[in-house]
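Render this sequence as a predicted structure.
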Amino acid sequence: MAKLDNKEINDISKEEIYQIIDDLTKKGKSTTEIGLYLKEKHAIKSVLQKTGKKISKIQKEQNLKEGKLPDELLFLIKKAVKLIKHNENNKKDTSGKRGKQKTVSKINRLRKYYIKTGKIDSNWRYSDSEAKLLVK
């Protein structure tokens, strides 16, 4: 990775950072991917230091994540779908089945937490068939 000049680092303003976050969120990038993009392309080590807010807070203020599941929950759902596909091909893999059970358990614990904090709807439930559709 090439180092950027100090001139390029100092040129970007809060509004430009907000615009980049807005564009990347609309393209479907996660907060992690946005942070990596800002770090690599614009040499912004910390959005929090530059703007005073985290990426997820900026997305929330601009109503970009309205009605979407939190990133942690989505990553666990993606992992569960991978394990489901693995178990369909490898029916005798008991450790794979156990891994899926543990992942679904984590999803359900996170679901309870997000319902308490109001980040997801109270009637949201995990199911394997819906997870497959959600990850596609």
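Summary. The two ends are 32 Å apart (CA to CA). Residues 93 and 116 are 35 Å apart (CA to CA).
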